[in-house]
Amino acid sequence: MKVRTRMAPSPTGDMHVGSLAITLKNYAFARRHHGQFILRIEDTDKVREVDDGIEAIQRILKQYSLDWDEGPNVGGKFGPYIQSQRLAIYQEKAEELIAKGKAYHCFCTRERLQEVKEKQQAEKTPPKYDGFCRNLSSEEVKKKLDQKIESVIRLKVPENKEIKFIDLIRGEIVVNSDTVNDQVLMKSDGYPTYHLAVVVDDHLMEITHIMRGEEWISSTPKHILLYEAFDWELPIFAHIPIFLNPDGKGKMSKRKGTVSAQSFLDRGYLPEALLNFFMILGWARPDDVEIMSMVDYIERFDPADVSSKSVVFDIKKLDWINGIYIRKLESSELKQKIEKFLPNDFPKDKLDSILILVRERLERLSDIEELTSFFYRDIQLHDDAKKMLLKKSNVEEVLTQIEQTKSQLLEIEDWNTANIEEAVRKLQENKEWKKNQFFMMLRVAVTGRKATPPLFETIEIIGKKFTLERLNQAIKFLSN
Ligand code: GLU
Fold first, then answer.
1. How many domains does the chain have?
2. Which atom of ligand 1 is nearest to 42's Cα?
3. Cis link prior to 126 (omega < 30° from 0)?
4. What's the pTM?
5. Ligand 1 centre from 213 Cα, in Å?
6. pLDDT tens digits, residue range 167-185?
7. Does residue 79 form part of some domain?
8. 77, part of any domain
9. How far apart are CA 277 and CA 280, in angstroms?
Protein backbone atom coordinates (compact mmCIF):
# COMPACT_ATOMS: atom_id res chain seq x y z
CA MET A 1 0.00 0.00 0.00
CA LYS A 2 1.18 3.47 -0.84
CA VAL A 3 1.46 5.53 2.34
CA ARG A 4 1.37 9.31 2.40
CA THR A 5 1.34 11.14 5.70
CA ARG A 6 1.48 14.81 6.44
CA MET A 7 2.05 17.39 9.07
CA ALA A 8 -0.02 20.50 8.64
CA PRO A 9 1.09 23.13 11.13
CA SER A 10 -0.22 26.67 11.24
CA PRO A 11 2.39 29.42 11.47
CA THR A 12 0.95 30.82 14.65
CA GLY A 13 4.01 30.71 16.90
CA ASP A 14 6.69 28.41 18.23
CA MET A 15 6.01 24.75 17.56
CA HIS A 16 4.76 22.90 20.65
CA VAL A 17 6.67 19.75 21.61
CA GLY A 18 3.39 17.87 21.25
CA SER A 19 3.33 18.77 17.55
CA LEU A 20 6.91 17.68 17.23
CA ALA A 21 6.04 14.31 18.72
CA ILE A 22 3.22 13.92 16.22
CA THR A 23 5.49 14.95 13.37
CA LEU A 24 7.84 12.16 14.40
CA LYS A 25 5.03 9.62 14.09
CA ASN A 26 3.98 10.82 10.66
CA TYR A 27 7.56 10.86 9.53
CA ALA A 28 8.37 7.39 10.84
CA PHE A 29 5.22 5.82 9.48
CA ALA A 30 5.87 7.15 5.98
CA ARG A 31 9.48 5.97 6.17
CA ARG A 32 8.44 2.56 7.39
CA HIS A 33 6.23 2.03 4.38
CA HIS A 34 8.58 3.68 1.90
CA GLY A 35 5.95 6.33 1.40
CA GLN A 36 6.07 10.09 1.51
CA PHE A 37 5.89 12.54 4.35
CA ILE A 38 4.45 15.90 3.36
CA LEU A 39 4.77 19.25 5.06
CA ARG A 40 1.87 21.57 4.41
CA ILE A 41 1.54 25.02 5.88
CA GLU A 42 -1.99 25.89 6.98
CA ASP A 43 -1.89 29.65 6.96
CA THR A 44 -5.52 30.49 6.38
CA ASP A 45 -5.93 32.29 9.67
CA LYS A 46 -4.12 35.51 8.88
CA VAL A 47 -5.08 37.04 12.22
CA ARG A 48 -3.17 34.45 14.24
CA GLU A 49 -0.21 34.17 11.90
CA VAL A 50 3.12 35.42 13.23
CA ASP A 51 5.98 36.98 11.30
CA ASP A 52 8.54 34.42 10.20
CA GLY A 53 6.11 31.65 11.22
CA ILE A 54 6.46 29.62 8.02
CA GLU A 55 10.25 29.71 8.08
CA ALA A 56 10.32 28.95 11.80
CA ILE A 57 8.36 25.71 11.28
CA GLN A 58 10.84 24.53 8.69
CA ARG A 59 13.84 25.53 10.77
CA ILE A 60 12.70 23.63 13.82
CA LEU A 61 11.84 20.46 11.88
CA LYS A 62 15.27 20.57 10.29
CA GLN A 63 16.94 20.93 13.65
CA TYR A 64 15.27 17.70 14.66
CA SER A 65 16.20 16.14 11.30
CA LEU A 66 12.58 15.41 10.40
CA ASP A 67 12.83 16.10 6.71
CA TRP A 68 9.88 16.09 4.36
CA ASP A 69 9.60 14.71 0.86
CA GLU A 70 7.18 17.32 -0.40
CA GLY A 71 6.45 20.75 0.94
CA PRO A 72 7.52 24.35 0.89
CA ASN A 73 10.97 24.88 -0.60
CA VAL A 74 11.31 21.27 -1.77
CA GLY A 75 8.17 21.29 -3.92
CA GLY A 76 6.39 18.19 -5.19
CA LYS A 77 3.75 17.35 -7.72
CA PHE A 78 0.82 18.30 -5.47
CA GLY A 79 1.97 21.83 -4.68
CA PRO A 80 1.82 24.56 -3.75
CA TYR A 81 2.13 23.38 -0.15
CA ILE A 82 1.24 26.66 1.47
CA GLN A 83 -2.52 27.06 1.74
CA SER A 84 -2.63 30.80 1.14
CA GLN A 85 -1.25 30.03 -2.32
CA ARG A 86 -4.14 27.66 -3.04
CA LEU A 87 -7.13 29.97 -2.58
CA ALA A 88 -8.50 29.44 -6.07
CA ILE A 89 -8.63 25.68 -5.45
CA TYR A 90 -10.75 26.06 -2.32
CA GLN A 91 -13.06 28.53 -4.04
CA GLU A 92 -13.58 26.10 -6.89
CA LYS A 93 -14.22 23.19 -4.51
CA ALA A 94 -16.70 25.23 -2.49
CA GLU A 95 -18.57 26.17 -5.67
CA GLU A 96 -18.60 22.52 -6.61
CA LEU A 97 -20.38 21.70 -3.36
CA ILE A 98 -22.91 24.47 -3.95
CA ALA A 99 -23.63 23.07 -7.40
CA LYS A 100 -24.19 19.66 -5.84
CA GLY A 101 -26.57 21.12 -3.27
CA LYS A 102 -24.20 20.24 -0.42
CA ALA A 103 -23.29 23.78 0.54
CA TYR A 104 -24.93 27.18 0.37
CA HIS A 105 -24.27 30.88 0.50
CA CYS A 106 -25.14 32.53 3.77
CA PHE A 107 -25.72 36.27 3.90
CA CYS A 108 -26.49 36.56 7.59
CA THR A 109 -24.97 39.61 9.20
CA ARG A 110 -22.84 39.49 12.30
CA GLU A 111 -25.69 41.15 14.20
CA ARG A 112 -28.20 38.52 13.16
CA LEU A 113 -25.82 35.70 14.13
CA GLN A 114 -25.27 37.39 17.47
CA GLU A 115 -29.03 37.53 18.07
CA VAL A 116 -29.39 33.84 17.25
CA LYS A 117 -26.59 33.04 19.64
CA GLU A 118 -28.11 35.06 22.47
CA LYS A 119 -31.49 33.46 21.94
CA GLN A 120 -29.91 30.00 22.10
CA GLN A 121 -28.03 30.95 25.23
CA ALA A 122 -31.25 32.13 26.86
CA GLU A 123 -32.99 28.89 25.88
CA LYS A 124 -29.93 26.90 26.94
CA THR A 125 -29.70 25.11 23.62
CA PRO A 126 -26.29 24.39 22.07
CA PRO A 127 -24.99 27.16 19.83
CA LYS A 128 -25.60 26.38 16.20
CA TYR A 129 -26.38 28.24 13.02
CA ASP A 130 -30.17 28.21 12.64
CA GLY A 131 -30.22 27.49 8.91
CA PHE A 132 -31.77 30.82 7.95
CA CYS A 133 -30.08 30.91 4.50
CA ARG A 134 -30.21 27.18 3.86
CA ASN A 135 -33.18 27.31 1.57
CA LEU A 136 -32.80 30.57 -0.31
CA SER A 137 -33.84 30.16 -3.94
CA SER A 138 -31.15 30.40 -6.57
CA GLU A 139 -32.70 33.68 -7.79
CA GLU A 140 -32.49 35.19 -4.33
CA VAL A 141 -28.89 34.09 -4.00
CA LYS A 142 -27.99 35.46 -7.40
CA LYS A 143 -29.62 38.77 -6.62
CA LYS A 144 -27.74 39.16 -3.37
CA LEU A 145 -24.47 38.17 -4.96
CA ASP A 146 -25.04 40.68 -7.74
CA GLN A 147 -25.70 43.31 -5.11
CA LYS A 148 -22.35 42.36 -3.62
CA ILE A 149 -23.83 41.54 -0.24
CA GLU A 150 -21.16 39.96 1.87
CA SER A 151 -21.53 36.21 2.21
CA VAL A 152 -19.87 33.04 3.44
CA ILE A 153 -20.33 29.49 2.19
CA ARG A 154 -21.67 26.95 4.65
CA LEU A 155 -21.86 23.19 4.59
CA LYS A 156 -25.41 21.85 4.37
CA VAL A 157 -25.19 19.28 7.13
CA PRO A 158 -27.72 16.48 6.52
CA GLU A 159 -30.33 16.02 9.22
CA ASN A 160 -30.24 13.17 11.72
CA LYS A 161 -27.60 11.13 10.01
CA GLU A 162 -25.05 8.83 11.58
CA ILE A 163 -21.51 9.97 10.94
CA LYS A 164 -19.10 7.09 11.42
CA PHE A 165 -15.38 6.75 11.21
CA ILE A 166 -12.68 4.48 12.50
CA ASP A 167 -9.88 5.92 14.52
CA LEU A 168 -6.85 3.64 14.58
CA ILE A 169 -6.27 4.40 18.25
CA ARG A 170 -9.80 4.65 19.58
CA GLY A 171 -11.82 2.39 17.31
CA GLU A 172 -15.16 3.29 15.80
CA ILE A 173 -16.57 6.72 16.53
CA VAL A 174 -20.20 7.56 15.78
CA VAL A 175 -21.72 11.01 15.96
CA ASN A 176 -25.20 12.20 15.01
CA SER A 177 -25.14 14.92 12.38
CA ASP A 178 -27.69 16.94 14.35
CA THR A 179 -24.88 17.85 16.73
CA VAL A 180 -22.84 19.28 13.86
CA ASN A 181 -23.10 22.90 12.86
CA ASP A 182 -23.59 24.10 9.31
CA GLN A 183 -19.92 24.84 9.26
CA VAL A 184 -18.52 27.85 7.41
CA LEU A 185 -16.32 26.58 4.58
CA MET A 186 -15.39 29.83 2.85
CA LYS A 187 -15.13 33.09 4.71
CA SER A 188 -16.26 36.38 3.22
CA ASP A 189 -12.64 37.41 2.59
CA GLY A 190 -12.13 34.56 0.13
CA TYR A 191 -10.15 32.43 2.56
CA PRO A 192 -11.29 28.90 3.34
CA THR A 193 -11.77 27.77 6.90
CA TYR A 194 -9.52 25.07 8.32
CA HIS A 195 -12.21 22.43 7.73
CA LEU A 196 -12.56 22.96 4.02
CA ALA A 197 -8.88 23.51 3.34
CA VAL A 198 -7.71 20.50 5.32
CA VAL A 199 -10.11 18.12 3.61
CA VAL A 200 -9.49 19.45 0.12
CA ASP A 201 -5.75 19.31 0.55
CA ASP A 202 -5.60 15.94 2.25
CA HIS A 203 -7.61 14.58 -0.64
CA LEU A 204 -5.78 16.34 -3.47
CA MET A 205 -2.42 15.53 -1.92
CA GLU A 206 -3.48 11.89 -1.67
CA ILE A 207 -2.87 11.62 2.03
CA THR A 208 -3.64 8.10 3.18
CA HIS A 209 -3.15 8.44 6.95
CA ILE A 210 -4.02 11.45 9.04
CA MET A 211 -2.24 11.35 12.36
CA ARG A 212 -2.91 14.46 14.35
CA GLY A 213 -3.52 15.68 17.89
CA GLU A 214 -6.66 14.53 19.63
CA GLU A 215 -7.84 18.12 19.93
CA TRP A 216 -8.97 17.75 16.32
CA ILE A 217 -11.17 14.73 16.92
CA SER A 218 -14.30 16.84 17.38
CA SER A 219 -13.66 18.37 13.94
CA THR A 220 -13.40 15.00 12.26
CA PRO A 221 -17.18 14.40 11.85
CA LYS A 222 -17.33 17.68 9.91
CA HIS A 223 -14.50 16.45 7.75
CA ILE A 224 -16.23 13.13 7.18
CA LEU A 225 -19.32 14.99 5.99
CA LEU A 226 -17.15 16.90 3.56
CA TYR A 227 -15.51 13.75 2.21
CA GLU A 228 -18.99 12.32 1.72
CA ALA A 229 -20.29 15.49 0.10
CA PHE A 230 -17.44 15.35 -2.40
CA ASP A 231 -17.77 11.58 -2.85
CA TRP A 232 -14.16 11.14 -1.84
CA GLU A 233 -12.60 8.12 -0.22
CA LEU A 234 -11.86 8.53 3.49
CA PRO A 235 -8.28 8.47 4.69
CA ILE A 236 -7.37 6.58 7.85
CA PHE A 237 -7.48 8.64 11.03
CA ALA A 238 -5.43 8.35 14.20
CA HIS A 239 -5.86 11.00 16.88
CA ILE A 240 -2.83 11.09 19.14
CA PRO A 241 -3.38 11.88 22.83
CA ILE A 242 -1.86 15.08 24.15
CA PHE A 243 0.86 15.21 26.81
CA LEU A 244 0.03 15.99 30.39
CA ASN A 245 2.21 18.38 32.40
CA PRO A 246 5.16 16.73 34.17
CA ASP A 247 3.22 16.95 37.46
CA GLY A 248 0.48 14.86 35.86
CA LYS A 249 -2.05 17.68 36.06
CA GLY A 250 -3.69 19.04 32.97
CA LYS A 251 -2.65 19.31 29.40
CA MET A 252 0.93 20.36 28.89
CA SER A 253 0.73 24.07 28.42
CA LYS A 254 2.78 27.22 28.51
CA ARG A 255 1.49 28.16 31.93
CA LYS A 256 3.55 25.44 33.56
CA GLY A 257 6.81 26.05 31.76
CA THR A 258 8.24 26.30 28.33
CA VAL A 259 6.74 23.86 25.87
CA SER A 260 8.13 24.86 22.52
CA ALA A 261 10.25 22.43 20.57
CA GLN A 262 12.92 25.13 20.39
CA SER A 263 13.02 25.62 24.17
CA PHE A 264 14.20 22.05 24.67
CA LEU A 265 17.20 22.69 22.44
CA ASP A 266 17.84 25.92 24.31
CA ARG A 267 17.87 23.99 27.57
CA GLY A 268 20.49 21.57 26.37
CA TYR A 269 18.50 18.57 25.21
CA LEU A 270 19.83 16.79 22.16
CA PRO A 271 17.33 16.43 19.31
CA GLU A 272 17.90 12.66 19.08
CA ALA A 273 17.27 12.29 22.81
CA LEU A 274 13.99 14.17 22.71
CA LEU A 275 12.86 12.13 19.71
CA ASN A 276 13.83 8.91 21.50
CA PHE A 277 11.77 10.05 24.47
CA PHE A 278 8.77 10.61 22.19
CA MET A 279 9.25 7.18 20.65
CA ILE A 280 8.77 5.32 23.90
CA LEU A 281 6.24 7.63 25.56
CA GLY A 282 2.74 6.18 25.44
CA TRP A 283 3.79 3.09 23.54
CA ALA A 284 3.03 -0.24 25.15
CA ARG A 285 6.02 -2.12 23.80
CA PRO A 286 6.30 -5.84 24.17
CA ASP A 287 9.87 -5.34 25.42
CA ASP A 288 11.28 -2.68 27.72
CA VAL A 289 13.65 -1.20 25.21
CA GLU A 290 14.03 2.45 26.07
CA ILE A 291 16.94 3.57 23.97
CA MET A 292 16.00 3.34 20.36
CA SER A 293 17.50 4.67 17.18
CA MET A 294 15.43 6.21 14.43
CA VAL A 295 16.12 3.15 12.29
CA ASP A 296 14.72 0.81 14.99
CA TYR A 297 11.73 3.03 15.46
CA ILE A 298 10.94 3.21 11.78
CA GLU A 299 11.03 -0.56 11.64
CA ARG A 300 8.60 -0.91 14.51
CA PHE A 301 6.27 2.05 14.71
CA ASP A 302 2.60 1.28 14.25
CA PRO A 303 -0.02 3.93 15.11
CA ALA A 304 -2.34 1.21 16.36
CA ASP A 305 0.09 0.68 19.28
CA VAL A 306 -0.25 4.24 20.53
CA SER A 307 -1.98 4.41 23.89
CA SER A 308 -5.36 6.12 23.81
CA LYS A 309 -4.67 7.69 27.20
CA SER A 310 -2.79 10.92 27.64
CA VAL A 311 0.71 10.39 28.92
CA VAL A 312 2.61 12.43 31.44
CA PHE A 313 5.58 14.28 30.04
CA ASP A 314 8.06 12.62 32.35
CA ILE A 315 10.96 15.08 32.48
CA LYS A 316 13.06 12.78 34.68
CA LYS A 317 12.92 10.09 32.06
CA LEU A 318 13.81 12.63 29.40
CA ASP A 319 16.80 13.82 31.44
CA TRP A 320 17.97 10.25 31.85
CA ILE A 321 17.70 9.55 28.14
CA ASN A 322 19.44 12.81 27.33
CA GLY A 323 22.33 11.89 29.63
CA ILE A 324 22.74 8.63 27.76
CA TYR A 325 22.84 10.45 24.43
CA ILE A 326 25.34 12.95 25.77
CA ARG A 327 27.63 10.13 26.83
CA LYS A 328 27.35 8.59 23.38
CA LEU A 329 28.80 11.71 21.77
CA GLU A 330 32.40 11.75 20.61
CA SER A 331 34.46 14.19 22.68
CA SER A 332 34.80 16.53 19.76
CA GLU A 333 31.04 16.55 19.16
CA LEU A 334 30.33 17.16 22.81
CA LYS A 335 32.79 20.02 22.85
CA GLN A 336 31.19 21.62 19.87
CA LYS A 337 27.62 21.16 21.12
CA ILE A 338 28.33 22.41 24.62
CA GLU A 339 30.12 25.52 23.45
CA LYS A 340 27.03 27.72 23.54
CA PHE A 341 26.19 26.66 27.10
CA LEU A 342 29.55 27.67 28.56
CA PRO A 343 29.38 30.69 30.83
CA ASN A 344 31.62 33.63 29.93
CA ASP A 345 34.07 32.99 32.73
CA PHE A 346 34.57 29.33 31.82
CA PRO A 347 38.28 28.64 31.26
CA LYS A 348 38.16 27.43 27.67
CA ASP A 349 41.73 26.13 27.82
CA LYS A 350 40.60 23.63 30.44
CA LEU A 351 37.48 22.52 28.60
CA ASP A 352 38.86 19.16 27.51
CA SER A 353 40.04 18.08 30.93
CA ILE A 354 36.90 19.35 32.69
CA LEU A 355 34.63 17.58 30.21
CA ILE A 356 36.38 14.28 30.81
CA LEU A 357 35.56 14.67 34.48
CA VAL A 358 31.94 15.78 34.26
CA ARG A 359 30.47 14.21 31.14
CA GLU A 360 29.18 11.23 33.12
CA ARG A 361 27.08 13.55 35.19
CA LEU A 362 25.69 15.80 32.48
CA GLU A 363 22.00 15.25 31.84
CA ARG A 364 21.48 18.45 29.93
CA LEU A 365 24.19 20.41 28.18
CA SER A 366 23.05 23.40 30.19
CA ASP A 367 24.05 21.59 33.42
CA ILE A 368 27.64 22.43 32.59
CA GLU A 369 27.73 25.66 34.58
CA GLU A 370 26.18 24.17 37.70
CA LEU A 371 28.44 21.12 37.56
CA THR A 372 31.68 22.97 36.99
CA SER A 373 31.48 26.46 38.48
CA PHE A 374 33.71 25.52 41.45
CA PHE A 375 36.57 24.92 39.02
CA TYR A 376 36.78 28.56 38.08
CA ARG A 377 34.60 30.61 40.43
CA ASP A 378 35.11 31.51 44.08
CA ILE A 379 33.31 29.17 46.39
CA GLN A 380 31.29 30.19 49.38
CA LEU A 381 31.25 28.13 52.55
CA HIS A 382 28.00 28.27 54.47
CA ASP A 383 26.56 26.58 57.54
CA ASP A 384 25.91 23.30 55.81
CA ALA A 385 29.53 23.30 54.61
CA LYS A 386 30.58 23.54 58.22
CA LYS A 387 28.62 20.44 59.06
CA MET A 388 30.21 18.60 56.18
CA LEU A 389 33.72 19.77 57.01
CA LEU A 390 33.39 18.65 60.59
CA LYS A 391 31.60 15.41 59.88
CA LYS A 392 32.98 12.50 61.97
CA SER A 393 35.63 14.81 63.43
CA ASN A 394 36.11 18.09 65.30
CA VAL A 395 37.45 21.57 64.64
CA GLU A 396 40.94 20.98 66.06
CA GLU A 397 41.55 17.82 64.11
CA VAL A 398 40.18 19.26 60.86
CA LEU A 399 42.26 22.43 61.21
CA THR A 400 45.39 20.30 61.70
CA GLN A 401 44.49 18.20 58.68
CA ILE A 402 44.03 21.24 56.48
CA GLU A 403 47.24 22.91 57.67
CA GLN A 404 49.27 19.79 57.02
CA THR A 405 47.66 19.14 53.66
CA LYS A 406 48.52 22.68 52.73
CA SER A 407 52.20 22.23 53.53
CA GLN A 408 52.34 19.00 51.57
CA LEU A 409 50.67 20.53 48.53
CA LEU A 410 52.84 23.60 48.73
CA GLU A 411 55.88 21.47 48.11
CA ILE A 412 54.62 19.93 44.89
CA GLU A 413 56.48 21.44 41.99
CA ASP A 414 54.95 19.54 39.14
CA TRP A 415 51.21 20.00 39.81
CA ASN A 416 49.55 16.93 38.41
CA THR A 417 47.06 14.35 39.57
CA ALA A 418 49.64 11.66 40.32
CA ASN A 419 51.80 13.93 42.46
CA ILE A 420 48.80 15.38 44.27
CA GLU A 421 47.41 11.95 44.97
CA GLU A 422 50.72 10.65 46.23
CA ALA A 423 51.26 13.56 48.59
CA VAL A 424 47.76 13.49 50.01
CA ARG A 425 47.54 9.73 50.41
CA LYS A 426 50.92 9.54 52.11
CA LEU A 427 49.87 12.19 54.58
CA GLN A 428 46.63 10.37 55.38
CA GLU A 429 48.44 7.07 55.87
CA ASN A 430 51.21 8.49 57.99
CA LYS A 431 48.82 10.33 60.23
CA GLU A 432 46.39 7.43 60.25
CA TRP A 433 43.44 9.71 59.62
CA LYS A 434 40.16 8.05 58.77
CA LYS A 435 40.07 7.86 54.99
CA ASN A 436 36.40 8.70 54.47
CA GLN A 437 36.41 11.57 56.89
CA PHE A 438 39.62 13.09 55.58
CA PHE A 439 38.91 12.86 51.89
CA MET A 440 35.36 14.13 52.25
CA MET A 441 36.58 17.03 54.34
CA LEU A 442 39.21 17.87 51.76
CA ARG A 443 36.69 17.69 48.94
CA VAL A 444 34.34 20.08 50.69
CA ALA A 445 37.17 22.44 51.58
CA VAL A 446 38.39 22.80 48.00
CA THR A 447 35.10 22.62 46.12
CA GLY A 448 32.41 23.58 48.61
CA ARG A 449 30.48 20.46 47.63
CA LYS A 450 30.00 16.88 48.68
CA ALA A 451 29.61 15.48 45.19
CA THR A 452 32.28 16.26 42.63
CA PRO A 453 34.31 14.41 40.04
CA PRO A 454 37.30 12.40 41.36
CA LEU A 455 39.14 14.46 43.94
CA PHE A 456 42.74 14.49 42.70
CA GLU A 457 41.86 15.24 39.11
CA THR A 458 39.64 18.00 40.37
CA ILE A 459 42.40 19.49 42.50
CA GLU A 460 44.75 19.41 39.55
CA ILE A 461 42.34 21.41 37.42
CA ILE A 462 41.53 23.91 40.15
CA GLY A 463 45.28 24.59 40.20
CA LYS A 464 47.81 25.03 42.95
CA LYS A 465 47.16 28.67 43.69
CA PHE A 466 43.39 28.33 44.05
CA THR A 467 43.60 25.08 45.96
CA LEU A 468 45.87 26.64 48.56
CA GLU A 469 43.67 29.73 48.73
CA ARG A 470 40.63 27.60 49.33
CA LEU A 471 42.34 25.68 52.09
CA ASN A 472 43.16 29.00 53.72
CA GLN A 473 39.57 30.07 53.28
CA ALA A 474 38.43 26.89 55.04
CA ILE A 475 40.82 27.51 57.92
CA LYS A 476 39.48 31.03 58.37
CA PHE A 477 35.92 29.81 58.12
CA LEU A 478 36.43 27.16 60.81
CA SER A 479 38.40 29.42 63.09
CA ASN A 480 35.63 31.99 63.33
N1 GLU B 1 -3.50 23.35 10.98
C2 GLU B 1 -3.81 22.44 12.01
C3 GLU B 1 -2.80 22.66 13.12
O4 GLU B 1 -2.33 23.73 13.23
C5 GLU B 1 -3.73 21.04 11.47
C6 GLU B 1 -4.61 20.05 12.09
C7 GLU B 1 -4.62 18.76 11.31
O8 GLU B 1 -3.56 18.10 11.34
O9 GLU B 1 -5.60 18.47 10.68
O10 GLU B 1 -2.47 21.82 13.89
1. 4
2. 1
3. no
4. 0.93
5. 8
6. 999 999 999 999 999 999 9
7. no
8. no
9. 6
